[in-house]
Amino acid sequence: MFGNAGTIEGFQRGIARRARWSTRATLMLGVSFAGPLLRLLGMQSWGINLFGKTKPGKSTVEVVGGSVIGLGTEAALPSFKATITGLDKVAITSNDSALFINEAGLLGRNAYAALSPMIYGLSEGKDKVRAGESVYASDAAASGWSLVYVLSSEEAIEALALQAGTTRQGGEVARCLDVPAVHSSNATVFDRRPPGLTDEEFSCWAHGQMAELRKACAENHGVVFDAYLRGLMELGDTLKPRAQAYIDEFVASLFLKDADGAVLHAARNFGTIYAGLRLAMDIGVLPPPWRALAVRRAVKACFRDGLKVSRLRDTTLEEAKAILHQRLTETPLPRKQEARLDTDVGFRTTEGPDELVAIRSMEFVRWFNSKSAHLYAVLAWLDEHDALVKTDASKRPTGRSYEWAVTTPRAPGWKGKRIVLRLPIPK
Q: How far is CA 78 from CA 63, 118, 261, 382, in A?
């Protein structure tokens, strides 16, 4: 079912430009670009289960990812039944690439009993289930295949395991992370809204974009992967260190200092997606308006949403969020016009449609005591959720610098930097 059709320009115009408006479509493009990097980096195969009810666009974004490697329609995607019965034959066709498998609902009531050994088999790179002493790693050089795979399902694998009366092991979760098909309260895979659209207009626009994406994928598929591979080869000896640097950049941006091994393993996996997208941008396959910061935020949003579903926990962020919510609850924060310079550390105010909380930056830092990792993690998380008011939207809250923090809104006599948050704060 693989084939080449259309042009690189057609892919960029019809698929890549539209995919920027969806964190999930961005993720699926990155899956295909990550596939060729695994063996180079000595990493084992790994996967994503994209889950959610019908009609939000799961299959559409799978086809978007598949269009990179030559799968132009949903009918071209392998089915679960075919994959279960011939794992090695299906996987080997996607060696050093990506494997998209459609609809776990075909597996019926005993879905988890079939999925669990399939996940181990795909991730180990061999057509057999073997979990040795290491719960994460296998010898990539000895594997029969090396790939990133995407499963789709109406339910999370975590939920399917519970239905079967069991729970997933950490090693299995790290090998294949559940990622919800929609972010937050969005109705479709499109979660980045063009300016000026009402809720109703955005919904109509999103469904129109899905139809256009499917049409563009049918017309343009396969050709961009050839160009990407040629570009990787032209990088020569610089490819491996550059890819590794992108992975390290992504993992560092998550502030996972105190996270457990399974979380770190999953983070590095998603780092290969970020690396693939950045390399595609470097090569010119994903030209402007694709931007590095937007790409990193999209992949991080998918990873964070996956952690919320799984039993894995980023302990640093979870603790930091608990501290933030406790402090906001316990700290007296009067309205701006009632705030007193000598006693209050912050205040509440309304600007346009936004309800804001302004906290003195030095006091906000004190909330987290000496736990700088917690402070940086919660600031990055707030920034990802657009809950942080900044002097410049392109600036990131990193390190000890607070030049991104604002001096407004002001109360009488108040000066200096403040951490300004939009309410309500996400949980």
A: 11, 14, 32, 39
For residues 400 and 396, give the distance between their C-alpha atoms in angstroms, rounded to a whole number: 11
**Amino acid letter, 422:** R
What are 101's strand-pairing partners? 151
Check residue 48 and report its DSSP letter. Answer: E
Query: In angstroms, how far apart are the furthest CA atoms of the chain?
Result: 72
- Domain 8-313 -> CATH class: alpha beta
CA distance linking residue 179 with residue 156, whole number of Å: 8
* 30 Cβ neighbours under 8 A, 6+ residues apart: 273, 274, 276, 277, 295, 299
- Is-contact 174 313, C-beta < 8 A? no
How much is the pTM? Answer: 0.81
Q: How far apart are CA 218 and CA 211, in angstroms?
A: 11
Chain segment 293-302, per-residue pLDDT in tens: 999 999 999 9
**Range(s) for CATH 3.40.50 in the chain?**
8-313
Tens-digit pLDDT profile for residues 364-419: 989 988 677 788 888 888 887 888 888 887 777 765 667 777 766 766 667 778 88
10 Å Cβ neighbour count for 408? 13
Place of tokens 């919800």: 180
| Peptide bond before residue 289 is cis, with ω within 30 degrees of 0 | yes
Tell me the C-alpha distance between 264 and 254, whole Å: 10
CB 37 within 8 A of CB 243: yes
Q: What is the DSSP letter of 188?
A: S
Q: What number of other Cβ atoms are within 10 A of residue 85's Cβ?
A: 9
Is the Cβ–Cβ distance between 2 and 100 less than 8 Å?
no
